[in-house]
Write the structure tokens for this entry.
Amino acid sequence: MEYDFSEDVDKVWPALLFMGAFVAAVGGLLFVLDILPRWGKGKERLQMFGFLGPALVLLGIGLVYPLVRTVTLSFYNNSRGSFVGIDNYSWIVTNDETLIMLRNTLFWVVCVPLLATAFGLIYAVLVDKARGEGIAKSLIFMPMAISLVGATIIWKFVYAYREADQEQIGLLNQILVWFGMEPQQFLTSSPSNTFYMIVMMIWIQAGFAMVILSAAIKAIPSEIIEAARLDGANPWQMFWKVTMPSIRPAVVVVTITITIATLKVFDIVRTSTNGNFKSSVLAFEMYNQAFRLSDDPSGEGRGAALAVVLFLLVVPIVAYQVRQLRQRAEMR
Amino acid sequence: MSNVSVDKATGATSPVAGRTSREPDTVAARVRRKLTSRVASVVAIIIAIVWTIPTFGLFVSSLRPEDEIKTTGWWKFFSNPSLTLDNYNEVVFGTSASSGRLASYFVNSLTITVPAVLFSVSLAAMAAYALSWLNFRGRDWIFIGVFTLQIVPLQMALIPLLQILGDYTDWAGGFFAVWFAHTCFGLPLGVFLLHNFMSELPAGLFEAARVDGAGPAMVFRRIVLPLITPALASLTIFQFLWIWNDLLVALVFTSGPETRPLTVRLAELAGTRGNDWQRLTSGAFVSMVIPIIVFLSLQRYFVRGLTAGGVKG
């Protein structure tokens, strides 16, 4: 049977129409703003509404109101339901399954930032000024461009399992077999499955760390390196006494950024195990409670409470990062 | 291991310093440096290979016939090579219920991504302009507010926003809700990034335009937009890849095969047809085609967007 494109073409029309309407509206707005009184005290207020208004309205509807609403919702069992106090929060810290989920989240947040930053740093130092540096960096960085779903499928194939009497199709199990071991079902046994998923995230985030740290290494003033060399520093001293202190701020920023991304990890768990086999994490459980188990009368409230916990974990990390950035700006 | 290449790097930049350094440049020292730099290269190559093999294996598999994918490892391809495009043909254009029908989802992904990027980047540019070059009371507070919103995990917005947008699920062929959500979520980062660029523009430029009688809207169109094109490019690419690769927002704000993007379909195939490797391998590559093209051709801009927008999501 031939593939029929006519249906697909049909759904593009509303999009084109909307985009046309949007461009016309923005153009019209800019035109009106141009004939309104322009500069000067008070008059710019009118201009301000024109330029800033649309974004502020969207932020209000899309982020500010939902933020407040989610916080209140976390004290109710669902959006039409009754006030339950801190029940949703005490459910998080007393239920067996959610405790495992919190433990898994801790594994993720400890392992991914450390190892991804370490791999990124080692690689950035190794390929610095080497031949083919550009290509070498692109190879490591590419996982960053593809979707987490795609990345997970790549790794599920690495972990693919066949019974011991069959030929293995997954590389990792084949390696086990070559070494005379039994093939494993990597993603179904807890708690090790969490670590096999963590590998995927490290694989993705190391490229990010490498790119940022490589830029920081290249920004080290050559006079410092010269001076250290003239003083006879060996490579080991050079790394710890010159390179590391110079790029420390970048290392902090990278670690923090990866920590936040890891706290919000959702796609990998959803695509690998769908949260089964005791592999759930905070951001996945939030989605699970709020949208998948929405028949559960307490699902929405619990989902909201999990979102608030995620938020509360992110805030201090970001605050620390902002302080770091400001200190660095003051030092300049 | 990291020490060795520092040696190598500095050695490469300063042959003169090498001769005048206190450590005499003996034959032994030169041999040692050669050796260590070789160790560094070997380690780098090993890491590069380990990082590339998973993707490479999937790619090779996507080109093998179905029965071979399912019975032998992809490395057997090199002793017994046979290539086919059947998997791609089937997963993209196949019309049976179990095939991917990815062509249709590909169109969905484009229909979600392109408008959402247009909306969020345009509105962010206008807002950033007001926040950097128009004078009004409370400007700094509004900027701080928008900046702070960057740290809100979008999980915080999902439940209430779905309730608000629930009434508009039929709009624009079902795409309205997901456009709206992506546009809102993209704004804080966009405003922040573009504000940084715009506030660096020289004030004299604006004075001159004002004296010549240009209003704020004309300054925005004629002066600001052309000057911040690199920043707009970074933001556009970053947003494009972010929305194209997104799974969570799409799961919440789209429904049914008419609107769901590639990522959702792939996740579905991985869940229900986890052993149909002929579909998963080729399907994964179909979803990666656009990001990889964008990435390889516009890497520079992408990196800039990424460094500025690390906390998004």
Q: What stands out?
A: Chain B has a mean pLDDT of 84. The CA atoms of residues 178 and 253 of chain B lie 5 Å apart. Chain B touches chain A through 138 residues (CB under 8 Å). The two ends of chain B are 35 Å apart (CA to CA).
